[in-house]
């Protein structure tokens, strides 16, 4: 069970790093100011939301597949 938790932690860390990199590339064109502009902040919010929704959907699908595999093994 501990290995599964470690794998999940690594997957979440990887997803977070990719999300950060991609949303930054997409939403921040240049370092003009210390703080994000309203447009940049809105873009980042939307980008992060899309990543999180997609991640949740993938987790849901993988969970269903794992559950089906367990049911088939139990037969």
TrEMBL record:
Gene3D superfamilies in UniProt: Mitochondrial import inner membrane translocase subunit tim13 like domains
Main location: mitochondrion
Keyword Zinc found: yes
One GO term of the biological process aspect: protein insertion into mitochondrial inner membrane
Membrane topology note: Peripheral membrane protein
Keywords for the protein's UniProt record, in alphabetical order: Chaperone, Disulfide bond, Membrane, Metal-binding, Mitochondrion, Mitochondrion inner membrane, Protein transport, Translocation, Transport, Zinc
Family: Belongs to the small Tim family.
Function in brief: Mitochondrial intermembrane chaperone that participates in the import and insertion of some multi-pass transmembrane proteins into the mitochondrial inner membrane. Also required for the transfer of beta-barrel precursors from the TOM complex to the sorting and assembly machinery (SAM complex) of the outer membrane. Acts as a chaperone-like protein that protects the hydrophobic precursors from aggregation and guide them through the mitochondrial intermembrane space.
Domain notes: The twin CX3C motif contains 4 conserved Cys residues that form 2 disulfide bonds in the mitochondrial intermembrane space.
The protein's name in its UniProt record: Mitochondrial import inner membrane translocase subunit
Natural source organism: Prymnesium parvum (Toxic golden alga)
Taxonomy of the source species: Eukaryota, Haptista, Haptophyta, Prymnesiophyceae, Prymnesiales
